[in-house]
Write a structure and sequence with these properties.
The chain is an alpha+beta fold. Helices cover 35% and strands 27% of the residues. The chain has helices spanning 19-27, 34-45, 80-106, 129-136, 156-169, 193-201, 254-270, 287-296, 305-314, 321-331, and strands spanning 3-11, 15-18, 51-54, 70-71, 74-75, 115-120, 144-149, 175-182, 204-213, 220-230, 238-243, 246-251, 279-282, 340-347, 351-360. A 9-stranded mixed sheet has the order 7-6-8-9-1-10-15-14-13, with helices on both faces. Strands 2-3 form a two-stranded antiparallel ribbon. It has a two-stranded antiparallel sheet with strand order 4-5. The protein is globular, with a radius of gyration of 20 Å.
C-alpha cells in the first residue's frame, strides 16, 4: 500500500525580522574588525533572504519575557542550559500549531492518529515534543511515538520515510510527522566565517504532515521511494555540536562545492531519470547550494523557484523547510495529477537524503 501525504501544515513565530536588520545587528558586535564586518555584509546580502522568523523578539528590537539575548546593540551569549530552557518553553507550541493545521487540512480527527514522529535538532528534553503532541492535541494515549534528533536539515525526509514504512506495514495507520526548529536560539557572536554564514541563513519554523494510505478520493503526495547517500567527503564541513554557549554550527564554503561536484551522480542514482521530474523540492541550505544544484543538474531557472521563494520569505528553518516547499507544491493549482516530484535535502555527514513523490489530485 502506497503511503500518501494527505496534508501539510506550517507554523511560524510571531516575530518577523528583516535580513537587513539582522545584518546590521550582527556587524555591530564588539570585536568585529572591518574585515569581519565586510564578511557579515557579504554573507547576509548574498543569502537571497528578505525576512526570517524568530522566537526571540529582542533580535528584532522588541521586548518580551523570553531569553535575554541583547543589551542594546550587543548580543549576549546565554548558556546552553538557558537556551535549551527557552526551546523547552517555545517548541511545543510550534509543534502543536503546525500539527493542528495539518490535521485540520486532512479532515481527520486527532483521535485517528496512530503514530507520531517528531523531528528536531535545536533542543532536547524529556518527556519530549512527541509526548507533548499527544497531550496538547488530545491524541489517543496508545499512540506510538518516535523522535528523530540531530539529523539536521535533511531530517524531514527520514521522518517521511519512517511514516511510509509504518503505513506500508499497517495500511490502517495514520502518522503525524512534525518538524520544529528554533535555530535562532543558537546565535553565536563569533566572527569566524562559519558562524557568520550560519547566522546569515538560519531561522525558526515548524511544519507537519499527515501520512496515511492512499485514497482515490483524497489528493496528496504519494511517497514512492527513498534513498540515502553519504558523500566521500564533508564530515567536517557540516557539523552541529553542543558547546557551553549553545549549539555550534560548522558550515564551511566546501559544502556547496561538494554538493555541486557530487549531486548529479547521486540524483541520477536515487531519483532516476532527471528528465522525467516535473517538480523539484530542494532544501535551500543557502542560495549557493541551490545555485550549485541547479547548475549541476542543468535545471531550468524556474525549477528551483519554490525552494528559492521559501528561502526568501523564511530563511533556512532546518528540517521544517522541505515541508514548506512540499506544501507550496501541493497547493499549486498549476500542478496536475501524476506530476512527479523529486525531493533532495542535505545534512551532516555530508549526507544527501532523497525522495520520489507523485502528486495526486482527487
Amino acid at each position: 500500500m502506497t503511503a500518501r501525504i494527505l496534508s501539510i501544515g506550517t507554523a511560524l513565530p510571531d516575530t518577523r525580522v528583516s535580513q537587513a536588520t539582522l545584518r546590521d545587528l550582527f556587524a555591530a558586535q564588539p570585536g568585529f574588525d572591518r574585515k569581519s564586518q565586510r564578511l557579515v555584509g557579504a554573507a547576509f546580502d548574498a543569502a537571497a533572504i528578505d525576512t526570517r522568523h524568530t522566537v526571540l523578539p529582542q533580535l528584532a528590537g522588541g521586548s518580551g519575557d523570553g531569553l535575554p539575548v541583547r543589551d542594546g546593540d550587543r548580543l549576549l551569549m546565554p548558556s546552553t542550559g538557558d537556551r535549551n530552557d527557552e526551546y523547552r518553553r517555545r517548541a511545543p507550541e510550534l509543534f502543536a500549531e503546525a500539527a493542528r493545521s495539518a490535521l485540520a487540512e486532512s479532515g481527520l480527527d486527532a483521535r485517528a492518529v496512530t503514530h507520531v514522529v517528531t523531528v528536531s535538532c535545536t533542543g532536547m528534553f524529556a518527556p519530549g515534543p512527541d509526548y507533548h503532541l499527544v497531550r496538547d492535541l488530545d491524541l489517543s494515549p496508545t499512540v506510538e511515538r518516535y523522535h528523530l534528533g540531530f539529523i539536521g536539515c535533511a531530517a524531514a525526509i527520514p521522518g517521511l520515510r519512517l511514516a511510509a514504512r509504518i503505513v506500508g506495514d499497517d495500511p490502517g495507520a495514520v502518522v503525524l510527522v512534525a518538524c520544529a526548529e528554533l535555530c535562532s536560539l543558537h546565535w553565536q557572536t563569533s566572527s569566524h566565517p562559519d558562524q557568520i554564514v550560519a547566522a546569515s541563513v538560519f531561522a525558526d519554523g515548524a511544519a507537519a504532515a499527515v501520512v496515511a494510505s492512499g485514497d482515490p478520493t483524497r489528493e496528496g503526495l504519494d511517497l514512492d521511494g527513498f534513498a540515502t547517500h553519504v558523500t566521500d567527503e564533508g564530515e567536517k564541513d557540516m557539523a552541529w555540536t553542543v558547546g557551553d554557549s549553545g549549539f555550534e554550527m560548522t558550515l564551511t564554503p566546501e559544502v556547496p562545492r561538494i554538493i555541486g561536484r557530487e549531486i548529479s551522480a547521486i540524483a541520477a542514482d536515487v531519483v532516476g531519470d532527471l528528465g522525467a521530474v516535473d517538480a523539484w523540492a530542494v532544501h535551500p541550505g543557502g542560495r549557493s547550494i541551490l545555485d550549485r544544484v541547479e547548475n549541476a543538474l542543468d535545471l531550468d531557472a524556474a525549477a528551483l523557484a519554490p525552494s528559492r521563494e521559501v528561502l526568501r520569505r523564511h530563511g533556512n528553518m532546518s528540517s521544517a523547510t522541505l515541508l514548506f516547499i512540499l506544501r507550496d507544491l501541493l497547493a499549486d493549482t498549476d500542478r496536475v495529477d501524476g506530476d512527479r516530484v523529486a525531493a533532495l535535502a542535505f545534512g551532516p555527514g555530508l549526507t544527501v537524503e532523497a525522495a520520489r513523490l507523485t502528486l495526486r489530485r482527487a
